[in-house]
Design brief:
By secondary structure, the protein is an alpha/beta fold. Helices cover 43% and strands 18% of the residues. β8, α8 and β9 form a beta-alpha-beta unit. It is elongated, with a radius of gyration of 23 Å.
Length: 287
């Protein structure tokens, strides 16, 4: 059975690259344990289940790992990415030649647990700011090589993607400002280069005024306390969107969202989200 279609925004070549790299480091020249102790004609049926409350993300990736190692396997999803699951909920059933499935097991689970961990952490933040009118954004603080998958997982958790990389959005940060001399000059240069949707990072209300006057399209309010954020919101007066960032945690995110900013960005949802616990229990088929 061929793997299911990829979710929107993901590329087959990028997914294949991730899978091949993950299998290469784990399997290497071969799964010598399974080759030694599992008869070639043995078939297994496996049940994949959540072992804790979680939000699912990356099930298609686990399916592709199993199919890559054992093309004769049958993978039957029992849940959908974005689903909020409880401990014991069945995620998928897998059956096929035992050697191949055992070889693929750890790689499939590693990827699924990682992405589901990101989605679970993201959903927690999204629920914490529900009703404020503020939208959660992710950042570029991702595990190298897993950018698109990590940002897919934040979408599954309910966040909106910020720029995917340096190539698809202008974000003038403090070091750009230091080189240019001022945030206004940095914005001016980006506008002169005819860049759309220019975002400028501001550390002070003075910078907010300067960036706004220079024609920035969105402002990133960096490491401002809630009182200063409210002043910035009043100063801008809904003329352009505002994003709050810097040191945001579950304890502070709602108060930040309630200041009236349009977005709050959180690096830790991709940078340090703990992997969730997913089990895969096997039963030998009689034949």
């Amino acid at each position: 059975m061929p793997p299911s279609n990829l979710p929107a925004g993901l590329d087959e070549a990028d997914i294949s690259r991730v899978i091949e790299a993950a299998l290469a480091e784990d399997v290497g020249t071969g799964d010598i344990t399974s080759l030694s102790v599992i008869p070639e004609d043995t078939c297994f049926t496996g049940v994949m289940a959540a072992r804790q409350p979680m939000v699912l993300a990356g099930l298609f990736l686990a399916e592709r790992v199993f199919m890559r190692v054992e093309p004769k396997s049958v993978f039957t999803p029992m849940a959908t990415d974005g689903d909020k699951l409880q401990a014991g909920d069945v995620i998928a059933r897998i059956e096929g030649p035992a050697r191949g499935l055992l070889t693929a097991e750890r790689t499939a689970l590693n990827l699924l647990q990682l992405l589901s961990g990101i989605a679970t952490q993201t959903r927690t933040y999204v629920e914490r700011i529900a009703g404020t009118g503020c939208t959660l954004l992710d950042t570029r603080k991702t595990i190298p090589g897993l950018r698109h998958l990590s940002k897919y997982a934040t979408r599954a958790g309910g966040a909106k993607n910020h720029r995917m990389g340096l190539y698809d959005g202008v974000l003038i940060k403090d070091n750009h400002v230091a080189v240019c001399g001022s945030v206004a000059e940095a914005v001016r240069r980006a506008k002169a280069d005819k860049r759309p949707n220019i975002e400028a990072e501001c550390d002070t209300l003075e910078q907010v005024q300067d960036a706004l006057a220079a024609g920035a399209d969105i402002l990133l309010l960096d490491n401002m306390d809630t009182d200063t954020l409210r002043l910035a919101v009043d100063l801008v007066g809904k003329r352009i969107p505002l994003e709050a960032s810097g040191g945001v945690s579950l304890d502070t995110v709602r108060a930040i969202a309630e200041t009236g900013v349009d977005y709050v960005s959180v690096g830790r949802i991709t940078q340090s989200a703990p992997a969730v616990d997913i089990g895969l229990d096997w039963q030998t088929n009689d034949h």
